[in-house]
């Protein structure tokens, strides 16, 4: 039977019927996996945002003697459209991967296990601290539709 309220216990079925915990060891490993995936989500979001900044910067922003990487990102993938650049396609792939990870984390929280919930929240906070809380760049992101970002 599926829980509809938060509960605390080691018996969890997470995402797949084959991912069941029935001992404290498997439960602890599941919580560690949730924490690591949450940190990885924040890492991938940081990579996606940095890639977006690099691919959207123009050649006029480079200083003399600096190597400009934007021509590599602006080559056309398909001859028919000017919107299909390598940078845009790669950014879309990163967005898709990050969205999938985010939705898997959301579904894991929907197991309503308190330990899983705490592990994911702590992992997101640690990942944010490690990868996204730097003061070196001020980035405003308004295009992320995922609630768990």
UniProtKB/TrEMBL annotation:
The chain crosses the membrane at residues 24-44, 86-106, 112-131. It is a multi-pass membrane protein. The keyword Transport applies. The keyword Membrane applies. GO terms for cellular component: plasma membrane. Its main location: membrane. It holds the Pfam family Ctr. It is found in: Membrane. GO terms for molecular function: copper ion transmembrane transporter activity. Keywords: Copper, Copper transport, Ion transport, Membrane, Transmembrane, Transmembrane helix, Transport. Belongs to the copper transporter (Ctr) (TC 1.A.56) family. SLC31A subfamily. This is Copper transport protein.
């Amino acid at each position: 039977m599926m829980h509809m309220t938060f509960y605390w216990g080691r018996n969890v079925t997470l995402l797949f019927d084959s991912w069941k915990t029935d001992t404290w060891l498997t439960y602890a490993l599941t919580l560690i996996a949730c924490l690591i995936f949450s940190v990885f989500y924040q890492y991938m979001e940081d990579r996606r945002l940095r890639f977006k900044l690099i691919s959207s910067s123009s050649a006029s922003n480079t200083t003399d003697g600096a190597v400009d990487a934007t021509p590599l990102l602006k080559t056309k993938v398909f001859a028919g459209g000017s919107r299909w650049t390598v940078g845009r396609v790669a950014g879309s792939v990163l967005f898709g991967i990050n969205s999938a990870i985010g939705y898997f984390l959301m579904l894991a929280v929907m197991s309503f296990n308190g330990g899983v919930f705490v592990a994911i929240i702590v992992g997101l906070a640690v990942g944010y601290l490690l990868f996204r809380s730097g003061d070196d760049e001020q980035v405003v992101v308004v295009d992320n539709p995922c609630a768990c970002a």
